[in-house]
Amino acid sequence: MSVLVIAEHNNKRLKAVTLNTIGAAKQLDNDIHILVAGSSCNSAVESAAKTENITKVLKINSKELSHVTAENIAPIIADLAKNYTHVLAPASTFGKNILPHAAALLDVQQISDISAIIDNDTFERPVYAGNAIATVKSSDDIKLITVRSIAFEPSSNEGGNAHIENIPSKGKSKLSSFVALRETISDRPELTSAKIIIAGGRGIGSASNFALIEKLANKIGAAVGASRAAVDAGYIPNDCQIGQTGKIVAPDLYIAIGISGAIQHLTGIKDSKIIVAINNDENAPIFQVADYGLVADLFDAVPELENKL
Questions:
Q1: Which DSSP category does 94 fall into?
Q2: How does 183-195 read in b/e, with b if 16+ C-beta sit within 10 Å?
Q3: Which end of the chain is more exposed for a tag (fewer CB within 10 A), N or C?
Q4: Same fold, 2-166 and 191-308
């Protein structure tokens, strides 16, 4: 049977992590369907139909899904899953929220955060903060899986011509209701898809000092991230947190400024192609993984670097 991908989108287009999830689905089957659920999501549906490797788009366009909650979407996924061998979603906040609910309804295990596919039943996933790789084999007839996006090549968002099929909504759930959305709007790239990331840590010293990071990021078109220590100190919002309990990233260039390099943070950046570290402590663990390191006061080094660019 086919593979179903649960789309994460903003009603206008598919998010980058969905394209990576489709790339993972391609390793399982050539017949890949995608569920696009939302309100006024016609643009996202059209984007999905044009995506490479997609053969069918399942469309749910309902006011009741203007803000998708796990309680609303999980029963739909559970019903649809009976026609598929695998159901995949990104290992993002979105995917980690909805897929366990659907797995519980189907009474199957969920396989989380896979980084490799061995065969249709066997998968690899990182454990112990990425220090080991577990090989997991499932005997469930339907496998619900969240995908670590950075581990798979994305499908192209063009060149496809998938059939679109309308699916009815199940109505509003009485278990939960949407209250409010607090969203940070930024012109910078998303952390999980950015090619360049500049991140600050506790060494930045204050929220106002993060202006140094932001000024440098604006100059080179980079995303801004942070360690958990900086987030916990209130220097920057928690949606910028990178690491085991934050976002997993794999940019072409990662610049860590004032970050000591705790193992939880290194877990989130270890797949970066080039890591550059600036820290005044020459014994900081970040230098053990950095391709290039500069032992210096960041308040001298960052302005100088910004002036040179």
A1: H
A2: eeeeeebebbbbe
A3: C
A4: yes
Question: Which fold, 191-308?
Answer: Rossmann fold (3.40.50)
Domains of the chain: which residue ranges?
2-166, 191-308
- What tokens does 140 get? 């469930």
Distances (CA, A) of 125 to 7, 86, 251: 21, 16, 20
Sheet containing 253-257: give its strands across. Answer: 223-226, 196-200, 253-257, 274-279, 292-295
Residues 95-130: pLDDT tens digits?
A: 999 999 999 999 999 999 999 999 999 999 998 877
Other beta carbons within 10 angstroms of residue 285's beta carbon come to 17
Q: pLDDT per residue over 30-75, tens digit each?
A: 999 999 998 889 999 999 999 999 999 999 988 877 778 888 899 9
**Assigned CATH for 2-166:** 3.40.50.620
Sign of CA dihedral 254, 128, 7, 73: negative
Q: How far apart are CA 28 and CA 120, in angstroms?
A: 6
